[in-house]
Amino acid sequence: MYEWSEEQLAIRDAIRRFVEEEVAPQVDALEHDGVPPYEVIRKFYKTFGLDEMARESFKRALERKIAGETGRPSRRGASAALTLIPIIELCRYCPGIVTSMGVSTGLAAGTIMKSGTPEQLERWALDLLTFDKVGAWAITEPDSGSDAIGGMRTSARPDGDEWILNGSKTYITNGPYADTIVLYAKLDDGTEPALRRRPVLTFILDAGMEGLVQSAPMRKMGLKSSPTGELFLTDVRVGPDRLLGGRSATTDPEAGRSSAKENFVTERAGVAAMALGVIERCLELSVDYAKSRVLKGRPIGEHQLIQLKLAKMEVARLNVANLVFRHIEMADAGKTPTLAEASAMKLYSAQAATEVALEAVQLFGGNGYIAEYRVEQLARDAKVFQIYAGTDEIQVTHVARDLLA
User: Where are the alpha helices (H) located in 68-123, listed in sequence order?
Assistant: First the structure.
C-alpha cells in the first residue's frame, strides 16, 4: 500500500470537511479557554455513526467473550485505515482531541475489552466505546516516569475479598474529568519484598469513590485541548468485581505487565498517524505562506533556503506516510508490530513531526510565533510526541535491545 484507495479518500474527505467546519472553529476555545473536548468528540461520533458502530462491535466481542473464544476477532471487511484516517485528519488541527479520544476508547476501553470479564465489559466498556462516558488509563507515577512498571509504587493490599489501594498517578490524560479509570497497582501481600518484581494488578475505578481524588487540569506547554491531571488514592476500597479479569488475574503474575506492554505497542504505532496529521498541515500552511508572503518584491518561496525547508518537510511527510501505510497493511494481515518495531516507528515519526513544525514556525518568521497563524500551536503539540508513550530515549533502548538480542 502506497496511497489511499478511492473509498478511503472519500472517507478522508468527509472527515476533513467535518473537522474544518466543526473542530477548527472550536480550537481557540479548547486551547485557551479551558473548554474540555468531550462534546466535540461526541458530535464527531454521532455524525459518523461511530457510537452505533461501537455498539455493534461490542455486541460481537461480548458474544465471543461469553463463548470463551480467545485471540483477535476477525477483521473481515474492516481496515485499520478506518481507525487511522480520523486520527490523521483531527491532528491536522487539534492533536489534543485525538489524545483524549484515544486514551478513553483505545487504552481504557481497550484494556477492559481485552482482559475484562463479560460482566466488566457490560458494566464499563460499552459506555467508553460509545463515548457516553470518559475514560482514563492510569499507569505513570511521579517517581517512575519512563520506568512505568518497574518503578510503580501504587499498591493493592488484599483485605478479605476486597482490595485497598494507595498511591498516586500523574500525567493522566482525561484524569480531571474521567468517569471510569483503569488503574495499575503493585500487589502488596507481604510475600515479595522486592518492589520491582511484584505482580501488577489492574483495577477499574469510578469517579467519586471514597478516597479517590482527581486533580484540576495541569497547565502544559502543548496539547492544551486534552485535559491532563493527577490521581490520589488514600485507602480506596474496591471489591473483587473491580479487579480486571476477576480473581483469575491474581494467578497470572505477568498479566498486568503484559497488558501494559501491549498497550504501549498500540499507543506508539498510533503516534505515527498523529505525527502525519501535524506534518501534513504544517507543510500545507508553509506552502501557502511561501507563495503569498512577499519580501523585497518576491514571494519568499522563490528563495532556495525556503525551498530547502519545504523539500525537507515533504521528505518527512513521505517517510511517515509510508510507515503509516505499512502499519495498515500489517494490521489488515492480522499482524502486530513488535515492541521494537512500534518504538522505531514512534521514534522517527515524533522527531519528524517536531522538526517539521519548528521549521514551519521558522519559515513564518515573526508570524510563526503568533497563535493566529496556527503553526505555533502545532509545534507545541508535536513536542509531546517525543515524550509521551515513552520518551525518545526509551524508544532507542527498545529498538537497540531488539537488535542486540
Answer: 81-91, 95-101, 109-115, 118-120
Eight-class DSSP state of 370: S
Q: DSSP label at 218?
A: P
Of 101, 111, 119, 100, nearest in space to 202 by CA: 111
Q: β-strand 155-159 against 180-187: which pairing, if any? A: parallel
Helices (H), 251-366: 255-292, 304-332, 339-364
- Which sign does the torsion angle of CA 385, 391, 396, 398 carry? negative
Q: What is the pTM of this model?
A: 0.93
Q: What is the pLDDT of residues 343-377, one digit of tens each?
A: 999 999 999 999 999 999 999 999 999 999 999 99
Lowest mean pLDDT among 22-26, 44-48, 126-130, 259-263: 259-263
Q: Cell 482490595 belongs to which residue?
A: 163
Domains of the chain, each with CATH number or no CATH:
6-133 (1.10.540.10), 137-253 (2.40.110.10), 258-404 (1.20.140.10)
CA-based torsion, 397, 143, 197, 235: positive or negative: negative
For the record, the C-alpha cell of 361 comes out as 514556525
- Spatial neighbors of 123 by CB under 8 A, at least 6 apart, are 241
